[in-house]
Amino acid sequence: MDRLLCGDVGYGKTEVVMRAAFKALGDGRQVAMLAPTTVLAFQHLETFKRRFQPFPVRVEMFSRFRSPKELKAGLADLAEGKVDIAIGPTGCSRKTSSFATWVWLSWMKSSALA
Questions:
Q1: Which residues contact 47 (CB under 8 A, 6 or more apart)?
Q2: Of 52, 61, 51, which Cα lies nearest the Cα of 96?
Q3: What confidence tens digit (pLDDT) does each residue in 47-56 have?
Q4: Are the beta carbons of 66 and 75 closer than 8 angstroms?
Q5: Are 86 and 78 in contact (CB under 8 A)?
Q6: Nearest CA-CA partner of 44 in 102, 110, 96, 90
């Protein structure tokens, strides 16, 4: 299931993505959430960690904010199914696109489509 969610600031895109991610996790799938920028990916990492803290969910971010060693270890854990939610900027999608059990969730501001 691939979905692109569009909308202006304040319309609840992140909430929709978090609820869809929770449902996908309940179905035994991994989730990749793509953000338009690295800074926004980091903000989403913090939001997802806070929201999913009461549950046995591992959330990781893949971006230039991570060292090559952290990225390599994270990708290995991702391949083994140890990472439940992977968050990153759109450029990171080519590193993780080989996983068959992914649910891709991506969004951007509607003004970016104009």
A1: 14, 18
A2: 61
A3: 999 999 999 9
A4: no
A5: yes
A6: 90
